[in-house]
């Protein structure tokens, strides 16, 4: 990576800086973070003091304990917090790493001649893409007006603590971070995607990239900007962009069994996260049968439609704040964007021929024509409707629980109406029943017939009066369950709509779901960032520039972990003997357990406990290192590292302490092991 040289180039040291250069200090600090799982500044200096000679041999220069004081590390964080310098550094670092990986929105292992749509019965290969998402990190500190830490929605569930937001883009499926942005904790997620995508487009300077995100990336402004730049996108549409009329029109073929569904199967190398299913005493057999049906690798069933989007672009000079979007007719054409980023297309205006308010159905407005300076952006968009088997089973189970609950409570209400204090009027009973149905959303499944009955009972006898009968009115109801409406509603469960502008040749239908299901790749990076081994949370820094610098430093460490994972797994896949494609001895307590996907954490753990013993006498200095174990030798070969790096620690340390900044070359600035 040439990390030390890049750091010295983009973050030069002050003229009064003495001792180890800033790039080498940062590399040693990264080694401490990765090996100890601790980013605290005051813990680095004691750690270096115990390994001073080893670090000196690794860097090729003698180091001092004071070179790693918390004051110097704070200076490094302050430099990393500079937005301009960090942008130039990250762009050059990304250029070195992306030379190894070829970005292409096409299936791995498929050439142009065989880029046919995958067979529905076969699992699809993963797709190389850029995945974007955001996370939050909490800290014990106060909130300032314009600071990074603000109160907002915490994805860790810590509502009582202020948070800072981190926006990240990774190269999928490798998980390599490409972009890291540090933002205030109260920033909304939706506006963060377009600036991050624009920054990546400026860095990579190539078209045809596939950007994958969640429903917060599905804003029409963001989708149109990506298409205008010549790239592709894939994201699910939120519920707010899907009306009931569109759902009814799309799923009409399912109700009459005329729609053909394409089965989608799980990829062989895909990580499966299993949840224990909910078991009900009366539905144990049905839950077991649903679980058995999904054990054959079937993930979902899907079908797709094409839709044309038409946007009107106006010059930037005529930009005006867009009014709130009007409510469209149920049968209207696709929604039209009201505004687009100034950096990409300039403001957009809705075509009045395609959209009008719903309250003016009977009196349409006069047609307005855009001026001559406006331009149209018309492109095709694929809408993929996907019904996940796991999502379908969960929603069916939840719906049946609601129906059982409503049925039970209706029976209890009927018995209560026959008690000592029954309701006398139908409106009172109707209000209670409708409130119950509205609470559980089961209005369409129950047909209620309200009745008003008259009960006659004998009056209390008296010696002087004859026996009489008293008549009292009582309201009740009869319940009828609509099986037809219930089964029709079940066919609407489990569906989710995805949108993409990628041609079918590059991203066939089976690849759409398998590509989006790679979300654990970026979530694993977030887990490493906030948990072990980077341990960002909790954060005890107080200054915003230090917080921003620490997050950027940990993003570099995350790149190192990801590259270590990829290097080990690639070497294992290239082994000629099938039995050598797995490595054993990495798991404590189970040395016979093998894995073909070793992680950087397991690799680093295998080298713990190595001690270099030095015995000094008046005549000589004797050093002793234990021999490398077979698993350690195997790991070094997987990482394409020579054992001489380890045995070089036995060389005598006669290097002088550097008092000036050395030459910023890779030969003089070798990183730590």
Could you explain how this protein is built, in words?
Residues 100-126, 271-295, 316-370 and 656-673 have low confidence and may be disordered. Helix 1 (3-10) packs antiparallel against helix 6 (83-98) and helix 12 (389-417) runs antiparallel to helix 13 (426-440). This protein has helices at residues 3-10, 22-36, 44-49, 52-59, 70-80, 83-98, 193-204, 220-228, 244-250, 252-255, 284-293, 389-417, 426-440, 483-490, 509-516, 519-530, 544-573, 600-605, 630-638, 644-647; strands at residues 129-138, 163-172, 176-184, 210-212, 232-236, 262-265, 298-313, 348-349, 375-388, 446-458, 469-481, 495-500, 583-584, 594-595, 613-616, 621-624. Strands 1, 2, 3, 4, 5, 6, 7, 8, 9 and 12 form a ten-stranded mixed β-sheet that branches. A two-stranded antiparallel ribbon has the order 10-11. By secondary structure, the protein is an alpha+beta fold. The protein is elongated, with a radius of gyration of 33 Å. Among the domains are: 3-94 and 543-650, no CATH class; 106-237 and 509-530, Nucleotidyltransferase, domain 5, CATH 3.30.420; 422-458 and 467-491. The protein contains 20 helices and 16 strands.
Considering the chains and any ligands shown, give keywords for the structure.
single chain, 673 residues, alpha+beta, Nucleotidyltransferase, domain 5, 10-stranded mixed sheet, 16 strands, 17% strand, elongated, disordered C terminus
């Amino acid at each position: 990576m040439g990390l030390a040289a890049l750091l010295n180039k983009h973050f030069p040291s002050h003229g009064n800086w003495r001792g180890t250069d800033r790039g080498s200090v940062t590399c040693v600090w990264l080694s401490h973070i990765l090996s100890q799982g601790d980013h605290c500044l005051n813990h680095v200096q004691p750690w270096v003091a115990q390994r001073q000679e080893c670090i000196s041999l690794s860097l090729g220069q003698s180091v001092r304990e004071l070179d790693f004081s918390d004051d110097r590390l704070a200076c490094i964080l302050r430099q990393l917090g500079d937005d301009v310098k960090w942008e130039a550094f990250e762009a050059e670092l990304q250029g070195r790493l992306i030379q190894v990986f070829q970005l292409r929105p096409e299936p791995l292992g498929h050439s142009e001649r065989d880029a046919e749509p995958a067979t529905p019965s076969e699992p699809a290969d993963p797709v190389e893409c850029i995945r974007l998402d955001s996370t939050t990190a909490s800290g014990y500190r106060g909130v300032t007006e314009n600071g990074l830490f603000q109160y907002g929605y915490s994805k860790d569930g810590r509502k009582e603590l202020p948070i800072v937001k981190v926006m990240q883009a990774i190269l999928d499926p490798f998980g390599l971070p490409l972009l890291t942005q540090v933002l205030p904790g109260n920033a909304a997620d939706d506006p963060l995607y377009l600036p991050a995508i624009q920054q990546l487009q400026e860095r990579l300077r190539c078209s045809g990239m596939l950007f994958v995100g969640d429903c917060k990336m599905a804003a029409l402004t963001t989708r149109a900007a990506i298409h205008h730049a010549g790239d592709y996108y894939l994201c699910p549409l939120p519920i707010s962009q899907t009306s009931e009329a569109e759902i009814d029109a799309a799923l009409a073929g399912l109700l009459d069994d005329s729609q053909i569904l394409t089965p989608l199967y799980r990829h062989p190398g895909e990580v499966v996260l299993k949840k224990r299913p909910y078991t009900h005493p009366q539905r144990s057999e049905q839950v077991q049968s649903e679980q058995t049906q999904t054990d054959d690798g079937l993930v979902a069933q899907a079908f797709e439609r094409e839709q044309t989007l038409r946007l009107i672009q106006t010059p930037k000079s005529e930009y005006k704040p867009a009014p709130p979007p009007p409510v469209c007719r149920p049968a209207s054409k696709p929604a039209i964007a009201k505004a687009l980023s100034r950096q990409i297309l300039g403001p957009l205006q809705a075509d009045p021929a395609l959209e009008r308010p719903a309250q003016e159905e009977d009196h349409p407005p006069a047609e307005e024509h855009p001026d001559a300076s406006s331009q149209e952006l018309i492109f095709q968009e694929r809408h993929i409707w996907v019904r996940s088997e796991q999502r379908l089973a969960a929603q069916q189970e939840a719906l049946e629980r609601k129906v059982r609950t409503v049925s039970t409570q209706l029976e209890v209400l009927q018995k209560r109406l026959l008690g000592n204090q029954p309701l006398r009027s139908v409106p009172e009973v109707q209000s209670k029943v409708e409130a119950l149905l509205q609470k559980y959303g089961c209005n369409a499944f129950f047909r209620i017939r309200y009745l008003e009955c008259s009960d006659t009972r004998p009056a209390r006898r008296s010696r002087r009066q004859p026996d009489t009968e008293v008549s009292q009115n009582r309201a009740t109801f009869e319940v009828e369950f609509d099986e037809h409406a219930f089964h029709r509603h079940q066919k609407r469960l489990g569906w989710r709509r995805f949108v993409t502008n990628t041609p079918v040749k590059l991203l066939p239908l089976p690849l759409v779901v398998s590509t989006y299901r790679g979300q654990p790749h970026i979530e694993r990076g977030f887990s490493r960032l906030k948990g072990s081994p980077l341990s960002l949370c909790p954060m005890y820094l107080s200054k915003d520039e230090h917080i921003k610098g620490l997050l950027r430093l940990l993003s570099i460490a995350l790149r190192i972990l990801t590259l270590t994972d990829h290097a080990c797994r690639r070497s294992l896949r290239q082994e000629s003997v099938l039995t050598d494609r797995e490595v054993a001895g990495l798991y404590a307590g189970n040395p016979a357990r093998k894995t073909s996907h070793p992680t950087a954490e397991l690799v680093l753990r295998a080298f713990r406990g190595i001690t270099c013993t030095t015995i000094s006498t008046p005549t000589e200095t004797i050093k002793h290192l234990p021999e490398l174990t077979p698993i350690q030798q195997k790991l070094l070969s997987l990482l394409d590292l020579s054992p001489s790096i380890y045995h070089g620690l036995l060389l005598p340390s006669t290097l002088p302490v550097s008092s000036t900044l050395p030459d910023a070359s890779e030969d003089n600035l070798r990183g730590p092991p």
